[in-house]
Amino acid sequence: LCCIFVALFWGFFGLICGLQFSIFKKNRYSTLILCLVLPAVFTLLEYIRSIGYGILWLGSGTLLGPHWTLGNPVYALADSQMFLSFSSYTGIYGIIFLVILVNFLTFKILEGYLNNKKIVSGSLIALLAIVVCIYGAGFILIRKQTVEDNTNAAKKINFAIIQTYQPTSIAPSSTEVLNDFKQQLNLLNQVAKEHTEAQVIVFPEGSNFFKNIGSILSGKQVENYFTQLFKEAHLIISGSRIIDSGGLAYSRVFSLDTKKDIISYYDKRLLTPGGEFLPYPIALITGLLSRIPALHFGNIITFQVGRKKVSTVNFEGQFSVAPIVCSEIMSPGLTRDATQGADIIIGMASYGIFHGKFTIIKQNLAAARFRAAENDKPIILAANVGYSYVLTGRGKTQIMAPDESPQILTGSIAISTGKSWYNRVGDLPIILTYLLLMASINLLTWFRKSRRL
Question: Looking at residue 54, what DSSP letter applies?
Fold first, then answer.
């Protein structure tokens, strides 16, 4: 059902292509018009598709908006530093336009050769000019960013990532919980002994470290534990499932100053359908076919959407971080909103529900590269049953775990306190530009036809 729904948007693009070709086929400027209209159509459909995925899996935990960019064609270009650089200005929706434009002109050239049309030369010249401009602009932009990086390289943050391997379980036994906690505790103690320079320490999504240590020790004992573990103040970031006084569950991220207390928290906003809440379509199907009531299943896994849009945490006036939890990295707009005023994006993920499938890990990594480049902010991501990594503010992979085993990753990452163009304005200007472009060209064509009649 999901694949059929997602494929419909590319099917609509094919249908619109046929309509547009029929409208402009007698126009001497048809190639010029179509090379502007069709990329705009495809880009807008991709934008709508990112909204449609949330509507398809609508449920109590749905956050409506252009968030689910799963399968976006631009992610295939995540290894290209040139396109990553472009995204700091245009986001992924500016890059899609360029990709479709180049493909359309290539198609016109092949069509012309097959039909022996003279139109080939014009399309070929246009294609070469556009490709030269893209690579020329990309070269200039990369050189500019390299100079900026060398200027800002002096300011660095030391980090430690605690990677765990704890398979997902709806109702883990007390033995499983204790073993998971011991694993985390041993890794944290290793960081405290061997990497005292680490200023920020990151646990994966849903690690429950603070929750578990709080269930064993009293409040004062917890405070003494962290005070004795670290001589200087450190920022530790860990997530857990919490239930508030009203009985509502949240996937919450806590930020702890080891010399003070919990200084901030952030509740995950973009929840995963089927993993963190039960979508209405699935609740309907399971209600009809299963003996186990869907309501019972929903009560076990249902989280609530977080209310705070900005997740930025300022630590001791030294640097600011913004936690982004797992699927939230798929949303350009949500990541941009949550990281306002931050120097670093803290990614937290758990792939236990997917059994560590590398396909989903690779797609999330591609999305993370674009989120880093779009906002000009490095990403430090801690994973459970996956690969932890650190990305520079240009989307380059600085360090990545060699495997999924429990381990720590340490190092330093350069930060920039500036803002990219995309971080300032987001997707709205470019989406409005495509809408105006399509509307103006189609209205102008309709007006000219009506005058002839």
Answer: H
In terms of residues, how long is the chain? 453
What is the rounded CA–CA span in Å between residue 413 and residue 365?
Answer: 18
Alpha carbon distance 453, 451 (integer Å): 5
Contact 321, 235 (CB under 8 A): yes
Tell me whether strands 262-267 and 249-257 are parallel, antiparallel or unpaired: antiparallel
Work out the angle between the directed axes of helices 174-194 and 219-229 (0-180°, nearest 10).
30
Own/partner long-range contacts of 392-397 (Cβ < 8 Å, ≥24 apart): 392/149, 393/149, 394/81, 394/84, 394/85, 394/145, 394/149, 395/78, 395/81, 395/84, 395/87, 395/369, 395/370, 396/81, 396/369, 397/365, 397/369
- Distance in angstroms (rounded) separating the CA atoms of residues 77 and 141: 17
Helix intervals (H) in 153-173: none
**What is the phi/psi pair of residue 168, to 5°?**
-70, 135
Q: Which two tokens stand for residue 58?
A: 């609508």
CA 90/CA 87 separation, integer angstroms: 5
Q: Are residues 235 and 257 in contact, defined by beta-carbon separation less than 8 angstroms?
A: yes
Bridge partners of 201? 160, 236
Residue listed under structure tokens 């806590």? 254
Best CA proximity match to 379, nearest among 364, 368, 367, 363: 368
CA distance 206 to 215: 16
Convert the pLDDT of each residue in 152-193 to its tens digit. Answer: 666 889 999 999 998 877 777 788 888 889 999 999 999 999
pLDDT tens across 303-348, in order?
899 988 888 999 988 899 999 999 999 999 999 998 888 999 999 9
313: Cβ contacts below 8 Å, ≥ 6 apart: 235, 255, 263, 264, 320, 321, 322, 323
Point out which residues pair with 265 in neighbouring strands.
254
SS3 state of residue 180? helix
Residue with tokens 């070709």: 21
Distance between CA atoms of residues 414 and 215, nearest Å? 37
DSSP letters along 253-306, please? EEEEETTS-EEEEEE--SPPBTTTB-BHHHHHHHHHH-SS-HHHHHHHH--PPP
pTM (2 d.p.): 0.91
372 Cβ contact list (under 8 Å, min separation 6): 345, 378, 379, 391, 392, 393, 394, 395
Q: Which residue has 């680490």 as its token pair?
A: 198
As beta bridge partners, residue 70 has none
